[in-house]
Amino acid sequence: MRLNRLVPAALILFVSGPASAQDWVEFTSKADFFTVNFPSEPKVRETTYRSEYGYDLPARVYSAAAGQSRYSATVVDYSVVEKLATEKSKTCPQENVENCIGGAQAGLGYWKMDLRGALVNASWRFFQRDAKVTSYLWEFIDLVEGHQLQLTNNADQSRTHVAIYMHQDRLYILEATVPRSAPAPGLFQQSLQFIDEQGKGVRYRTYYTTGYSEEWKFPAPPPPRTR
Q1: pLDDT tens-digit profile, the chain (227 residues)
Q2: Closest CA to 101 of 122, 116, 86, 114
Q3: Cα(171)–Cα(190) distance, rounded to whole angstroms?
Q4: Dihedral of the alpha carbons of 142, 143, 144, 146, in degrees to the nearest 10
């Protein structure tokens, strides 16, 4: 787990530059508030991500390949889930109100549960693959908590390394798949860093967990320190 990393001095919407002797690039998305190392300039694709409770959320997929190895970072915007769920709760069928409308603790349309459970649900989806899970860990990057998984494909024995984090109502899913005999993709998985609106790297003074709220009686974490 990394606690300290450097960020590039100049940032535009999507920025990249040399990051290693192997000609990897340090890619920055100011739109999704993160930086990560890719083996080449990634392609960016707009898509949607269906949440656990059935809401289609806006997302972007950043992807690149190097030989037979594939790398992607999927960023899902959960900031709209409350609005979508609240609107849905207004049209709940009378015969299914209890399982549709939610409530104070769960949120209208269960948006609070959807938000707080995003990490677990994203991890669970990898368990459904035709692969053997060889590692599943709680982890953190700059004190932002997350999950890390390793899987071995049952068909070709390729290995997939996954890092999942939730920060500022955004879900970050980093996935790297390499051939059986290839080294672990540590340069990719461990290079993730979160940035603020000015493009500066941030790190919290204590663990950051998504969904803090006075209503839920959780103490808010201290403001992040800018690097």
Answers
A1: 455 443 333 333 444 443 344 589 999 999 999 999 999 999 999 999 999 999 999 999 999 999 999 999 999 999 999 999 999 888 888 766 666 778 788 888 999 999 999 999 999 999 999 999 999 999 999 999 999 999 999 999 999 999 999 999 999 999 999 999 898 888 898 899 999 999 999 988 889 988 764 344 444 555 666 55
A2: 86
A3: 16
A4: 100
